Amino acid sequence: MSFEDERVAVEAKMAAEYSSTTVKYENIPFAQPVDTAWVSLTILSGGGNVDSIGSGTGRLERFSGVIQIDIYVPEDGGTKAARDIADLVHAIFDNKQFSSGSSGTITTRV
Fold first, then answer.
1. Model-level pTM?
2. What is the DSSP string of 47-110?
């Protein structure tokens, strides 16, 4: 498993399936919009477990983590725009499987 490939897989899935607003990715220069909604994607990698008996290439490793999407909308506009964006992002990552390079299969839950 490669944490860099994990990042590439998550960002590629977001870029391919989300086009409603500007997305801020980690450690990339970003001009924050003033009068429009935007989202920020953060990958919080967690701890790992070995979920098999034995060693070597047949070893099964599982890593937990969080894909965090922060939603920003203009002030005094209510919550509808943010909730609509949340529904779109939820559909992208709810109970999906995807990968990139040596990321292994990334399985998302709710």
1. 0.87
2. EEEE-SSS-GGG--EEEEEEEEEEEE--TTS-SHHHHHHHHHHHHHHTT-EE--TTS--EE---
